[in-house]
Design a protein that fits this description.
Structural class: mainly alpha
Number of domains: 2
Shape: globular
Largest sheet: none
CATH superfamily of the largest domain: MetI-like
CATH topology of the largest domain: MetI-like fold
Length: about 300
């Protein structure tokens, strides 16, 4: 008994040390980035295109390209991931085939991102002739995060008490009505949490975008999605070349000049701001669904 208490105490101490060490490293990294990058942040830095002169270089094309990519990725991955997870959990039969599919989805979540980049290059760029466009990049990132969203959806649906399903069916609701009006709203907070993690991974990926041919230097933006004439919306920007913040930061870090390293630190700060904003919106939506749940 005493040995067990000592082991339990030692594990608690080791866990605390590991947590504090991780937070210390994270704090040191953030301090380094903000100490170097805050001096470079300005309005001109946000609205200027990249340049060979570090004092004139900006990240306009990079952060706009990142927003385009995240919009395409979310629009493609979220509905497909939720639909696939819902079908596998609520409608699919529990047999060996279902077990094999579940195992493969879990394995796909651990596949290196460069493999998805090669898949995107072969499928979207060459076979479907999308070129090195925003659409090809967004769909490549979508298949990268799709397994994570599928797994999060299934785990969230499993956490719903069976009594909710039974009560709904007992009152005469159909299977789809039960899933649509009872199960999915109750599971949505967990699904959105998984989606937040998936999109946070996608926004920092560089290898898949470089593989499909994203540009490292670009002095123009994708076509604006809003027009003054009918039909007021344009999808031309989906087929334009692009760059992204991770690629721009990678490009600046690889240069020998110290000023470009300062630009890279400022780019990282902007990337963190986009991540926090995106996660904040998702958290607000998640909390909205939580308030509506009444068990």
């Amino acid at each position: 008994m005493r040995t067990s208490r000592v082991a339990d105490r030692a594990f608690q101490v080791w866990g605390l040390v590991a947590t504090v060490s991780g937070l210390f490293v994270l704090g040191w990294l953030l301090y380094t980035v903000f100490a170097d990058g805050l001096q470079r942040l300005s309005w001109n830095f946000l609205v200027s295109f990249p340049s060979r002169k570090p004092e004139q270089a900006g990240i306009l094309s990079a952060w706009v390209g990142t927003v385009w990519l995240m919009a395409v990725t979310l629009a493609a991955a979220f509905p497909l991931g939720v639909a696939a997870g819902t079908y596998l959990e609520e409608y699919g039969k529990k047999n060996r085939l279902a077990g094999l599919i579940e195992m493969n989805i879990a394995n796909l979540a651990a596949v290196p991102s460069i493999i998805y980049g090669l898949l995107g290059l072969g499928l979207f760029v060459r076979v479907l002739h999308m070129g090195r466009s925003v659409l090809a990049g967004g769909l490549t990132l979508a298949i990268l995060v799709l397994p994570v969203i599928v797994m999060a959806t299934r785990e969230s649906l499993r956490a719903i008490p069976p009594s909710i399903r039974e009560a709904s069916l007992a009152l005469g609701a159909t299977k789809w009505q039960t899933v649509r009006h009872q199960i999915l709203p109750a599971a949505m907070p967990g699904i959105l949490t998984g989606t937040i993690l998936a999109m946070s991974r996608a926004i920092g990926e560089t290898a898949p975008l470089i593989t499909i041919g994203a540009l490292t230097y670009i002095a123009f933006l994708p076509a604006h999605p809003v027009m003054a004439e009918f039909p007021f919306l344009s999808l031309k920007g989906l087929f334009d070349p692009f760059t992204a913040l991770p690629i721009q930061v990678f490009n600046w870090v690889s240069r020998p000049q110290k000023a470009f390293s300062t630009n890279a630190a400022a780019g990282i700060i902007v990337l963190l701001a986009i991540v926090f904003f995106m996660n904040g919106v998702a958290i607000l939506i998640r909390n909205h669904y939580r308030k509506k749940i009444r068990w």
